[in-house]
């Protein structure tokens, strides 16, 4: 019996499919099947019922899987403690990030953090806030980066990362040039492009403005974007307006930046934090990642120039 076999057991239990589990473990299906068969023979137990589709974990197997997870967790904790004793920041961390943040900090702050800490293996997933919270509770994630405060996240520990101004991206540049600042009540809310349901940035836009159905959208088109880049393209090609987080400006061309306008004071902003279920042996990585992002963005965002000019927009 070895640690790899336990990891394979957990993977098959998760995916209920030998092929998918093998793919997730980066090995061939025959190798994975042989390793699990060897484990079952050694312990004289049947962990999986291979006659069902999807594969079913037996009653005995469920208990074996639970114990395997405890062992894997203990091994990871041992590795982390060894790294700490050697003054090395290392280990594996599973991180969930909401899509309206990941696009802007993943290729910058997070990449730079990993370059500085090559002993860390980070698994990142783009997920909605609700799915991040579910995954944290299920132990599938170690931490999540979301917009806060969030009512359903009260049971989690939370570390503040940054405050980010919310702006307007509009195709009507001539009209907007008359006034650098946009008054929410004066927006043509019938020309708004929105993100899909469940996205906190959509909720924040709805909290700022009273929205109606987009008249620019064909009557036979049901469309809601899943990312900011899609909204920008829709405004560029079709017209209308959308909301834009400040960090998105770094990925716009000079022509596109001319379509960005600020709201009238007090400027709306959103708070971004890293949350985690409980302090664990991975706490050092979470703390260092949070500090790195916070310090990197502390002088880059408008909010830090004069916080009194801003008003928080909650994600719910």
Q: What does this entry look like structurally?
A:
This protein has three domains: 3-62, Arc Repressor Mutant, subunit A, CATH 1.10.10.10; 85-162 and 271-312, D-Maltodextrin-Binding Protein, domain 2 (3-Layer(aba) Sandwich); 164-268, Periplasmic binding protein-like II (D-Maltodextrin-Binding Protein, domain 2, 3-Layer(aba) Sandwich), CATH 3.40.190. Strands 3, 4, 5, 6, 7, 8, 9, 10 and 11 form a nine-stranded mixed sheet that branches. With 316 residues, the chain is α/β, with parallel strands linked by helices. α11 links the parallel β10 and β11 (310-312). It contains eleven helices and eleven strands. It is elongated.
Structure characteristics:
single chain; Arc Repressor Mutant, subunit A; D-Maltodextrin-Binding Protein, domain 2; 3 domains; 11 helices; 42% helix
């Amino acid at each position: 019996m070895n640690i790899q076999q336990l990891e394979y057991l957990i993977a098959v239990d998760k995916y209920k499919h030998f092929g998918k589990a093998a793919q997730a473990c980066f090995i061939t299906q025959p190798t994975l099947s042989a390793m699990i068969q060897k484990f079952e023979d050694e312990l004289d137990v049947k962990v999986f019922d291979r006659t069902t589709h999807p594969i079913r974990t037996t009653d005995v197997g469920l208990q074996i899987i639970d114990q395997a997870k405890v062992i894997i967790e203990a091994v990871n904790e041992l590795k982390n403690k060894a790294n700490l004793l050697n003054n090395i920041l290392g280990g594996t961390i599973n991180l969930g990030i909401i899509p309206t943040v990941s696009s802007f900090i993943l290729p910058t702050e997070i990449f730079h953090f990993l370059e500085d800490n090559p002993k860390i293996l980070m698994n990142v997933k783009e997920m909605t806030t609700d799915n991040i919270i579910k995954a944290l509770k299920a132990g599938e994630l170690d931490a999540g980066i979301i917009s806060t405060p969030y009512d359903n996240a009260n049971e989690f520990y939370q570390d503040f990362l940054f405050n980010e101004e919310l702006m307007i991206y509009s195709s009507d540049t001539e009209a907007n040039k008359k006034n650098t600042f946009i008054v929410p009540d004066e927006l043509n809310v019938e020309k708004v492009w929105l993100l899909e349901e469940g996205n906190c940035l959509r909720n924040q836009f709805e909290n700022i403005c009273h929205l109606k159905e987009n008249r620019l959208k064909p009557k036979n088109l049901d469309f809601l974007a899943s990312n900011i880049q899609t909204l920008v393209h829709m405004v560029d090609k079709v017209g209308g307006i959308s909301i834009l987080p400040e960090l998105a400006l770094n990925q716009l061309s000079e022509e596109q930046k001319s379509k960005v306008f600020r709201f009238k004071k007090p400027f709306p902003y959103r708070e971004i934090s890293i949350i985690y279920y409980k302090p664990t042996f991975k706490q050092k990585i979470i703390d260092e990642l949070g500090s790195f992002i916070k310090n990197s963005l502390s002088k880059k965002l408008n909010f830090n120039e004069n916080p009194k000019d801003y008003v928080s927009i909650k994600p719910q």
